[in-house]
Amino acid sequence: MKKIKISLLSVASLSIAMLMGCEPGQHAQTDHGEHSTTTSSKPMDHSKHNMTGNNTAPDAMLSYARPTPDFSLTDQSGQLQNQSMLKGQWQILFFGFTSCPAVCPETLATLQAANHKMAGELPKVVLISVDPETDTPAQLKAYLSNYQIQSTGLTGPIEQIRQFSHALFLPLSKQANPQHGGLDHSGKVVVVNPNAEVVAYLEGRQPVDQFADKLGKILAQHTGKAHKKI
């Protein structure tokens, strides 16, 4: 009977870890940007991760692809889009806003530099605005045109954006600075495969060489092809 109880407890712990979107022993993000431990009691050393926003976890490579949630948002051309837009090619999702003072421009600069190192093979970048009152489709288009990457912007009702980000385990929190608008958001980017499935989370503000190398390995691993050496 004792062995059965232990087994049931192990199954329960594993189920919780999977529901929180993390592997056993990893940290799950809460709505307040903190992290709860699933099966590991080892504390995380946050001093090793130079990040802002509401996410301080390291990169996460998922052992299984997780479907992206459906959504209904407007792209920078004024067209209504849903989950089907994520199918057919690799894409990188990123929550941010055009008047973001640091996280967004620094992350986009990393993506642009990584695109150069990867010989233009960086997946399409999709910026989902967390400040829809300001970020109109035209504003998003103009903002993204400053970066030499394949990209598009999405905007829409803030509650839908909240639901979308929360379903991706990157919940938004209270406004970081009223003068800059928008919401406090994660610095993570979400790597999505051609089946519209999440395969990894990468910190956007890390050395370009590291980011490009990690992303290249992810693409190679999931496509079964050797990625170009960078």
UniProtKB/TrEMBL annotation:
Residues 25-56 are annotated as: Disordered. Cu cation binds at C100, C104, H185. Keywords: Copper, Disulfide bond, Metal-binding, Signal. Residues 1-28 form the signal peptide. One of its GO terms (molecular function) is metal ion binding. Disulfide bonds join C100-C104. Residues 62-220 form the Thioredoxin domain. Belongs to the SCO1/2 family. This is Thioredoxin domain-containing protein. It comes from Pelagibaculum spongiae. The lineage of its organism: Bacteria, Pseudomonadati, Pseudomonadota, Gammaproteobacteria, Oceanospirillales.
